[in-house]
Design brief:
- The chain has 468 residues and is an alpha+beta fold.
- Among the domains are: 77 residues; 169 residues.
- The protein is built from 11 helices and 17 strands.
- β15 and β16 form a beta hairpin.
- The protein is rod-shaped and about 145 Å long.
- The chain starts with a helix and ends with a helix.
- The model has no long low-confidence stretch (mean pLDDT 92).
């Protein structure tokens, strides 16, 4: 009889311990309901080993599996990491292109379109009064405004490139930090899970979150080995994390900008810039090396076309002193592209040097050359003879707007995909307060029942002792 009573004591004791553990895990879930990256945990309840006696078997209560289960979906987490990489690319590209778009804003009245219009109008006004000082001074002022807009637009676009370049260097440092932290978490997970008796759920959640942050910066491949170590490589196969070791990326200046290099264990370096296909690094690299240079090239072509066309006519004209361009060799513009286009300082200092007349006119105050230069606005001199200067610039501004629109569409689409995956991940791994409260009530009731069992068995034992 005493053995049975002591057996009941043991059943009550293990029940108390087990339900207490279940309550603790439930409380931890509730506490982390708003913790980013947290995967809810669950205690697996198992029957104790039964005892055998001549009448059959007798159950000995309940126990909790030592390994606390982490509820997550490996496939969804992998998809989410890939989605983070796609989203990072388009967000970085959109961020850069929106800066560039601001440079082409015409709503303020100080854009290149307005500056070109004022420049051509000034030549037209000069043709109406070719020896007028006011008209000549106005042309010089409008020309200086035009060259300033070209110079600033070129400098601003170059600064956008530099900003992307700085972002690339910062991202490389962040990648190195994340790789090192993941390697440290690999070690912690391996230490906790050695022997298979415990689970490093919290460390695994942290590692998963770090992997997503890393994926947002650069496209990577990852897999977990049988020992629980996460191995991470770049898309072209260079190792970033292997067990408890991490490898670094670095940057070096090539043609004025930072290229990304992978550093091997022996210190040798490999340029992987062109092998980066996704993540924020890809977005910044693509904008810096392809998209923004395309804008600058078109802007330089426009400035060079205006310089060549205006100088060609102006050098053949006659100024108010009666000197022809062929004699003076005086160009209206100096410079070669948008970055350095300027009005000739001699003309800026002396408006009389503007060659408004043609050499065929008998008087220095003629206007044929001014008319010819004003008419350049309507000539098909750009795009291989298919566009005017204004058309060419409007096409450039339109291309910038289209690029921003495409980046925004891709960013919005990928944001939606990311949110859907994150929602599904939360459905699998997230904490539901309603579910946890139901579990808490169940475990609490079971705990109270086990405590009541202890009281009952104690009373039985007391009576048994009294009988003896």
């Amino acid at each position: 009889m005493a053995n049975i009573i002591y057996g009941m004591f043991n059943v009550a004791r293990t029940a108390l311990i087990t339900q207490q553990k279940a309550i603790d895990v439930t409380a931890n879930n509730i506490a982390n309901v708003n913790t980013e990256g947290y995967s809810r945990q669950r205690v697996t309840l198992e029957q104790n080993e039964p005892v055998y006696y001549e009448g059959g078997t007798l159950g000995t209560g309940v126990q909790a599996n030592r390994v606390i289960q982490r509820i997550y979906d490996r496939f969804v987490n992998q998809q989410l990491a890939e989605s983070e990489s796609d989203l990072g690319r388009w967000d970085a590209q959109l961020e850069t292109l929106e800066k560039a778009e601001l440079m082409f804003d015409e709503t303020s009245g100080y854009g290149l379109n307005d500056a070109l219009s004022e420049f051509w109008n000034s030549w037209q006004e000069l043709s109406n009064n070719p020896d007028g000082y006011t008209e000549r001074a106005t042309l010089i002022a409008d020309t200086q405004n035009l060259t300033d807009v070209f110079n600033h637009l070129s400098a601003d676009l170059t600064q956008v490139q530099s900003d992307s370049d700085a972002s690339i260097a910062e991202a490389v440092e962040e990648i190195n930090t994340l790789a090192s932290e993941i390697a440290d978490l690999n070690l912690k997970i391996a230490e906790v899970e050695a022997g298979g008796l415990h689970s490093a759920n919290d460390f695994r959640d942290q590692r998963e979150l770090k992997l997503q942050e890393l994926s947002a910066l650069i496209d990577v491949d990852s897999f977990e080995d049988a020992d629980g170590y996460l191995t991470i490589t770049t898309a072209n196969g260079n190792t970033l994390v292997d067990r408890t070791n991490s490898w670094e990326l670095t940057t070096h200046t090539v043609d004025g900008f930072e290229d990304v290099y992978w550093v091997s264990g022996t210190g040798t370096e490999e340029n992987i810039t062109e092998a980066i296909d996704n993540g924020k690094l890809k977005g910044w690299i693509e904008a810096r090396d392809t998209i923004i240079p395309g804008y600058l090239e078109d802007l330089d072509d426009l400035a060079a076309g205006i310089i060549s066309a205006v100088n060609g006519l102006h050098a053949a004209g006659t100024d108010l002193t009666g000197t022809t361009g062929t004699a003076s060799g005086l160009n209206f513009f100096t410079g070669a592209d948008a970055s350095d286009i300027e009005i000739n300082t001699n003309i800026a200092d002396d408006p009389n040097l503007i060659a408004a007349a043609s050499t065929s006119e008998a008087i220095p105050g003629g206007s044929e050359n001014a008319v010819a230069i004003a008419e350049l606005q309507n000539d098909m001199l750009m795009g291989g003879g298919t566009a005017t200067f204004d058309d060419f610039y409007n096409s450039l501004a339109s291309n910038v707007g289209n690029d921003v629109y495409q980046a925004e569409v891709n960013s919005d689409h990928q944001t939606t995909v990311n949110q859907q995956l994150a929602t599904y991940q939360q459905e699998v791994s997230g904490v539901s307060l309603d579910e946890e409260m139901v579990d808490l009530i169940q475990f609490q009731s079971a705990y109270e029942a086990a405590a009541k069992l202890v009281t009952t068995v104690d009373e039985m034992l007391e009576k048994l002792i009294n009988m003896v």
